[in-house]
Amino acid sequence: MSKLATQSTAHRQAIVVGSGLAGLSAASQLISHGVAVHLLERSVKPGGNSIKASSGINGAPTKYQPGTPLFDTRFYEDTIKSVGGVISTARKEREDLISTLTNSSSDAISWLVDEKWIDLSVVVQLGGHSFPRTHRGAGKTPPGASIVTTLLKSLKEHPLFYLETSCLVTSVLKSGDEVTGVEYDCEGQTKLLHGPVIFASGGFGGDAEGMLAQYRPDLAGFPSTNDPRPGSQNLLTDVGAQLRDMEFVQVHPTSFVDPKDARNPVKFLAAELLRGEGGLLLHDGKRFINEMETRKNVTEAITRFPATDSSPRQWDIQLVLDEGIYEKATSHIDFYVWKGLMHKTTIEELGPTALSTIQEYAKAAAGHVPDPLGRNYFAQWKLSDVSSESVVYVGKITPAVHFTMGGVVISPRGEVLDANNRPIKGLWAAGEVSGGIHGENRLGGSSLLECVVFGRISGDQAFDYLKEVKQ
Ligand SMILES: Cc1cc2nc3c(=O)[nH]c(=O)nc-3n(C[C@H](O)[C@H](O)[C@H](O)COP(=O)(O)OP(=O)(O)OC[C@H]3O[C@@H](n4cnc5c(N)ncnc54)[C@H](O)[C@@H]3O)c2cc1C
């Protein structure tokens, strides 16, 4: 038994469930206040889906934003717009959460950069943003991995931190109207742990046959970019938590189908930038959509074709890049080629229909003709003299479930709210387990941000709560 686990006094420690970015942010904040943290993680390895994040984390204004960053005051408006029509339900609650998210975003980046020494110096503009504000490092390590491994390393060095992996939290303990701890299974043993609880157990995108099938039966059987695991929101509804927006699920149009393991329901994301830098999509050798359309529209265009597999439900679409794109995105493409998800070939392999499609695309990219599908941005596409001998990079892609916008309702202080919008004492939630911030659509980069913002707020709140209990 660890030093922490043998401490019987309930109120000297807080419990964090889940070791993704939300859990690690909450734990870091608690420890900065001198509170011991017992973190429970069901997987063998910590990091959750957070460690896979590849585009970056939003923040505005920051010192890294190009141009005149102090004028980037539109993060709030962009987020409200992305939430969509559902903003009209529970408008005030949603606006308060979004204000907290966007107003704390600059501080979240400073915390990671200036206190945790994580490089976030590169800033890009993702779809739906009116300004570049998605931060990642200049090196090769993707942002999710660099943030998670840095926070985890510094926590592991701290004597107040105790992490138990391969331990599944099975219920939340409640006495009267107050949460008092959790029950969990570890190495075949059922154990109890007492203290205030921060839930950071992530979304349900990897729960294909369970929660996903329940809330979005139309997506049952879809592959996912998420770790395959059941959602844990029911542990919170069992103690009175309210759910919001469970039907809103983000499907990413481009995840790779690995030719060596085509039926694997867990897919590797084909980065958005491949299309953005000029890549095109083919079905039976023909283009079918302006590749610069939103994730939702590209996904809908693909799923209008008959699926080629039912388990998982997937489609047979080719992503094609030329050498101009390769020059710009070399490290990404080399990595995909190394993993066997893309290969270098000539257009001959794709057949005569694809050859004439790519010839037409190249004419549009060179500005000789308007693109019949309305694409007007071709970025790095350079191939103009297209023949069957022209070199291309090709991968097979399919849509995959990527992010779940719904979850338990929280207050701007991270408190889990019951059906009457009252905080459940002793219980907080942060990250993808919560619902109501992103509405119908999450802006790219805002999920890592919500983990940091609401994880840290929850840590502060649990500390205040412990102070009150002790008095
Ligand atoms: C491939 C990919 C790329 C992405 N890229 C980006 C990006 O660039 N920017 C961005 O903002 N977002 C991105 N996202 C989304 C983002 O990574 C996640 O939404 C976010 O990291 C979720 O963090 P979290 O801490 O809430 O949950 P997670 O990181 O998923 O962690 C939850 C943890 O809780 C554990 N857990 C669950 N239930 C229990 C239980 N009952 N008992 C014990 N442990 C439990 C899980 O095992 C898991 O380790 C991406 C997602 C994926 C899959």
Automatic annotation (TrEMBL):
Its EC number is 1.3.1.6. InterPro entries: FAD-dep_OxRdtase_2_FAD-bd, FAD-oxidoreductase_2, FAD/NAD-bd_sf, Flavocytochrome_c, Succ_DH/fumarate_Rdtase_cat_sf. It is an enzyme of class 1 (oxidoreductase). Its cofactor is FAD. Residues 14-448 form the FAD-dependent oxidoreductase 2 FAD-binding domain. Binds 1 FAD per monomer. It holds the Pfam family FAD_binding_2. One of its GO terms (molecular function) is FMN binding. Keywords: FAD, Flavoprotein, Oxidoreductase. It catalyses: succinate + NAD(+) = fumarate + NADH + H(+). The keyword Oxidoreductase applies. Irreversibly catalyzes the reduction of fumarate to succinate. Belongs to the FAD-dependent oxidoreductase 2 family. FRD/SDH subfamily. NCBIfam families: flavo_cyto_c. This is Fumarate reductase.
